[in-house]
Amino acid sequence: MAKGVAKVILARVPADKAFYFYGEIGKPLGTFASSLEEFGEKLKRVESKSLEFHTHRGDFEKWVYMLGDGELAKSLIKVRDANHSGETLRTELVKTVQTRINQLKRPAPK
Question: 0.90 exceeded by the pTM?
């Protein structure tokens, strides 16, 4: 992957493009992420009900696709399709996002 593409995906986004966590429709949690790394950290702490809500709606993959990361979006669809819930879902989401962040931060081969 080109270094510039990774930089764009990892960059902070403005507030109107941030990911806002909800417990359900109309119930914002007051937690948001403005970058993929921040998103990965928030996944570790937000209530599992919110993770289930967003996973089943496809919100996570839509957001990372908006960041420009189609590869991570596909991985998140696989997590959704596995139908995990609770802490198992959290573990899979965190692992998937963190693995991708590590890939994006790796120096490009010369």
Answer: yes
Number of structural domains in the chain: 1
Residue at 91 is within a domain: yes
Distance of CA 104 to the CA centre of its chain: 14
Residue 10 lies in a domain: yes
pLDDT in tens, 22-65: 999 999 999 999 999 999 999 999 999 999 999 999 999 999 99
CB atoms within 10 A of CB 51: 23
Element (H, E) at 43: helix 36-45
